[in-house]
Amino acid sequence: MRVILALCMLAAALMAQEPQFTNSGELVLPAHYREWVFLSSGLGMTYQPSTAANQDRSPSFTNVFVNPAAYRSFLETGKWPDQTVLVLEVRFSETKGSINKDGHYQAGLDHVAVEVKDTARFPASGWAFFALGKASSGKLIPRTADCYSCHAEHGAVDNTFVQFYPTLLAVARQKGTLRP
Amino acid sequence: MRVILALCMLAAALMAQEPQFTNSGELVLPAHYREWVFLSSGLGMTYQPSTAANQDRSPSFTNVFVNPAAYRSFLETGKWPDQTVLVLEVRFSETKGSINKDGHYQAGLDHVAVEVKDTARFPASGWAFFALGKASSGKLIPRTADCYSCHAEHGAVDNTFVQFYPTLLAVARQKGTLRP
Questions:
Q1: Are B7 and A7 an interchain contact pair (Cβ–Cβ within 8 Å)?
Q2: Could B42 and A106 be called an inter-chain contact, meaning their C-beta atoms sit closer than 8 Å?
Q3: Cβ–Cβ under 8 Å, residues A67 and A74
Q4: DSSP string of B75-134?
Q5: Whole-model pTM?
Q6: What are the residue ranges of helices labelled H in chain A?
Q7: Among the partner residues A42, A65, A109, nearest to B104 by beta-carbon distance
Q8: Residue A22's pLDDT is what?
Q9: pLDDT of A95 higher than 80
Q10: What are the distances in angstroms from CA B42 to CA A43, A91, A173, B92?
Q11: DSSP structural state of residue A50
Q12: Which of A57, A126, B27, B135 has the fewest CB atoms found within 10 Å of its own CB?
């Protein structure tokens, strides 16, 4: 019973995550985002035409995590509820190391960015983006930045790139919530 | 209060996961492993010398998830407790699609394999591997298979490839539990 209660308290702490802001309006990095629900990862993804310059560099992994409450809501409805928090974690890659001979595996943290849905705080579209780097909080990315227009125009579901999250893409198809 | 209780019950269900077996000894795929803790992913990783043949094929993503109770134990001790369940999910990759111009993102499921630590059931090393394919349960991989000797010889911590899980690698370094 004690164990169950301890698990409950821990679970509630982990699962009740809503976006937290500092007094100056910075978004606070969710302390346990690595225990949130993993949506997918990419390697070397780019939305710009590839050039010799960006092909030469060492590609980065991009891991996406979402708060568990929003995830479960998406499974039921195919939509994101208010207070959704999506954490994009960008990590360096390595290729030959230990017994690995080819391909890529993940290494140190490069930076973190966060997308939140908070309709009271961001009435324009409900969504906002924050650049955290490696810090414990980060500033709002200005509304004129490409991320806002790109997510609005190309996000398969409500400003998010569900087209790159295979398990949620299946849910959105089933629920009929994909952008026409 | 109701919401907290519902979250508790859900959380307990998610977090109390231990390996489950059928009467014939097959391992049952954990129903909610996609809500377990993500350790890392690789793309096109191979432990064999690369050849023209394996470089030509479309690379696969390999996502690794662990049951939350085992994860929290590892954070505290740098070791895996009994009843650890590691799920390896292999997914196909795609490269040009939607607005993505280069690199790779994850697509449909290829197959699943599971490594479990259950010292009562598998007294030899404590660990066993199961091949599930796309099924809801799967057979024990014979002890003579390469995965057993390779994990035993090269796993950075106790039969597991912690060297490829950057957040746990840092924990194992700090706790002094890395293979010498």
A1: no
A2: yes
A3: no
A4: HHHSSPPTT-EEEEEEEEEE-SBTTB-EEEEEEEEEEEEEEEE-TTT-TTTSEEEEEEET
A5: 0.92
A6: 2-15, 52-56, 68-77, 146-154, 166-175
A7: A42
A8: 97
A9: yes
A10: 9, 12, 27, 12
A11: P
A12: A57
What H or E segment, with its residue span, contains residue B175?
helix B166-175
Is there a contact between A140 and A129 (Cβ–Cβ < 8 Å)?
A: yes
pLDDT tens per residue across span A21-72: 999 999 999 999 999 999 999 999 998 887 766 664 689 999 999 999 999 9
For residue B45, give the 3-state DSSP assignment.
Answer: strand
In three-state secondary structure terms, A136 is coil
- The complex scores an ipTM of 0.91
Count how many pairs of residues, chain A against chain B, have C-beta atoms within 8 Å. 154
Please count the other Cβ atoms lying within 10 Å of the Cβ belonging to residue A44.
Answer: 22
Instruction: Kindly state the tokens that stand for B158.
Output: 């106790």
Distance CA A94, CA A110 (A): 13
In this complex, the residue of A68, A97, A103 whose CB is nearest that of residue B44 is A103
Spatial distance between the Cα atoms of B1 and B21, rounded to a whole number of angstroms: 35
Q: Print burial letters for B142-169: b (CB count within 10 Å at least 16), e (below 16).
A: eeeeebbeebeeebbbbbbbbbbbbbbb
CB contact at 8 A, B116 and B140: no
Q: How many CA atoms lie within 13 A of B154 on its CB side?
A: 14
Assign domain B2-175 one CATH number from 3.40.228.10, 2.30.110.10, 3.50.70.20, 3.30.70.120: 3.50.70.20
Question: From 3.20.20.60, 3.40.190.10, 3.30.465.10, 3.50.70.20, which CATH number describes the A18-175 domain?
Answer: 3.50.70.20
Residue B47 tokens read as 């432990």
Chain A partners within 8 Å of B97 (Cβ): 163
CB atoms within 10 A of CB A5: 11
What is the reported pLDDT for A24?
Answer: 97
pLDDT of the residue at B140: 98
Q: Which two tokens stand for residue B9?
A: 């019950």
